[in-house]
């Protein structure tokens, strides 16, 4: 194993692309050097102990190539054509009997539409278990890949000290849907939310360690997904669906996070399969619509529908969730719930109330403190332009990033944390 030298680091700044860095590192010292270059700073040696298990074994790399190729429905000959290797060469690479060169791996990653590290670094354990769980289904491949990429990114940022180590708060999973109300109150307390509606749920979740990313998958690509990474949690919220449901889905994933689940085998959050999912939905709705807030708003209006509209718009919760919750809390009976559900509000209803629907989790959206820390990583030279843009999922473009040459070194120096 070889540790990155100053020359490598200078080369990194000059070439400034992940691929060049990868090629140089992989050829000169394998995966370990790749990781140390990914986190270019003078503190590499201390970091190596915390790195994920590299898959240096050629058989492992080959198996991953075969799996990614299968998933895309390509034959070995198809892949060979794209990377200029004959079919026999691909067979040998996949079997691990022919060593794959760095430049071939770069081409393979591009051909198979995967990040390079997918082939050379072990996935976070929760991702591996999630992949192997037969109950995980109904999501698109795009959805599964996004949650995996997010998990790897967060693991990388924590390892590099760009995200701090945290201690996750844990709550006892409620034993029934009825018991969920009290647990939701505990969760509100953890996040220092009062008795009112929860606004900016993404920020509140991040404050206790759940990083929620809203990204556009496809409308039928799934609602949300969650994986645990030690103390941090990562939630992917499908930004292509209705805003009220997006918040509900995040509240649901927050339940999985607080109840210390390794991952969530979500199929569709709305059509509940198991008792556990039913309880977590009850937790989510109580979190977003605390009884005291509902009762107070209910009292404000003589017209039940107007009251329900006010609850939905103020708490930014979907109409169907509000109608169901009003019935569960005993404000309306089943017939009235059904009448209300069939008469959803429009813009004019909000206007009449003097309210406006404020949308949250519009894609792409990354958690606010995460964004701040990634930009700090960029300013202090720990993240390249390409990596920074990638980590911010299109929320900023290259043109938005400050030019580092304009930042005086003295101003940066204060931002560096003292070395351990
Ligand atoms: Zn779930």
Structural features, described:
- With 420 residues, this protein is mainly α.
- It has 3 domains: 6-48, no CATH class; 124-365, no CATH class; 368-413, no CATH class.
- It is built from 23 helices and 3 strands.
- A 3-stranded mixed sheet has the order 1-3-2, with helices on both faces.
- Strand 2 and strand 3 form a beta hairpin.
- Helix 5 (58-72) crosses helix 7 (87-95).
- It is elongated and about 75 Å long.
- The two termini are 23 Å apart.
- Mean pLDDT is 83; it is low at 1-16 and 31-51.
- The structure holds zinc ion (ZN).
- Residues 252, 256, 264, 266, 277, 280 line the site of zinc ion (ZN).
Jot down its keywords.
single chain, 420 residues, 3 strands, 54% helix, binds zinc ion
How do you describe this structure in short?
With 420 residues, the protein is mostly helical. Helices cover 54% and strands 5% of the residues. It is built from 23 helices and three strands.
List the helices and strands and how they pair.
Elements: H1 6-15, H2 18-29, H3 31-38, H4 44-48, H5 58-72, H6 76-83, H7 87-95, H8 102-111, H9 117-120, H10 125-132, H11 141-159, H12 180-190, H13 201-207, E1 210-215, E2 224-229, E3 232-238, H14 243-258, H15 275-288, H16 291-300, H17 304-315, H18 319-328, H19 334-341, H20 347-353, H21 368-379, H22 385-391, H23 409-413
Parallel strand pairs: 1-3
Antiparallel strand pairs: 2-3
């Amino acid at each position: 194993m070889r540790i990155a030298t100053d020359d490598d680091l200078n080369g990194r700044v000059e070439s400034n692309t992940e691929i060049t860095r990868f090629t140089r590192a992989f050829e000169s010292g394998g995966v370990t050097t790749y990781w140390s270059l990914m986190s270019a700073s003078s503190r590499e040696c201390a970091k190596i102990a915390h790195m994920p298990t590299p898959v240096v074994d050629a058989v492992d790399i080959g198996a991953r190539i075969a799996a990614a190729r299968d998933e895309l429905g390509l034959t070995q000959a198809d892949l060979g054509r794209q990377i200029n290797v004959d079919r026999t060469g691909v067979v040998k690479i996949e079997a691990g009997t022919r060593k794959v060169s760095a430049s071939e791996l770069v081409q393979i990653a591009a051909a198979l539409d995967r990040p390079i590290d997918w082939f050379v670094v072990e996935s976070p354990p929760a991702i591996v278990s999630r992949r192997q769980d037969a109950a995980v289904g109904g999501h698109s491949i795009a959805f599964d890949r996004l949650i995996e990429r997010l998990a790897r990114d967060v693991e990388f940022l924590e390892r590099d000290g760009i995200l701090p180590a945290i201690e996750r708060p844990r709550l006892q999973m409620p034993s029934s849907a009825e018991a969920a109300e009290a647990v939701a109150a505990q969760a509100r307390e953890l996040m220092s939310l009062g008795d009112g509606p929860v606004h900016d749920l993404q920020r509140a979740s991040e404050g206790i360690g759940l990083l929620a990313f809203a990204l556009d998958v496809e409308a039928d690509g799934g609602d949300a997904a969650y994986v645990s990474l030690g103390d941090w949690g990562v939630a992917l919220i499908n930004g292509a669906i209705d805003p009220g449901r997006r918040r509900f889905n995040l509240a649901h994933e927050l339940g999985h996070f607080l109840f210390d689940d390794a991952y969530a085998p979500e199929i569709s959050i709305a059509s509940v399969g198991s008792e556990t999912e039913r309880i977590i939905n009850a937790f989510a709705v109580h979190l977003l619509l605390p009884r005291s807030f509902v009762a107070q708003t209910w009292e404000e209006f003589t017209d039940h529908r107007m009251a329900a509209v006010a609850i939905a718009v103020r708490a930014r919760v979907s109409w169907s969730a509000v109608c169901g919750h009003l019935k569960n809390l005993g404000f309306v009976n089943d017939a009235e719930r059904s009448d209300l559900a069939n008469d959803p509000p429009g813009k004019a209803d909000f206007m009449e109330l003097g309210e406006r629907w404020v949308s949250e989790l519009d894609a792409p959206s990354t958690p606010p403190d995460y964004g701040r820390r990634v930009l700090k990583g960029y300013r202090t030279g720990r993240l390249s332009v390409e990596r920074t843009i990638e980590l911010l999922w299109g929320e900023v473009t290259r043109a938005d990033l400050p030019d580092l040459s304009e930042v005086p070194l003295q101003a940066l120096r204060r931002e560096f944390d003292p070395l351990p």
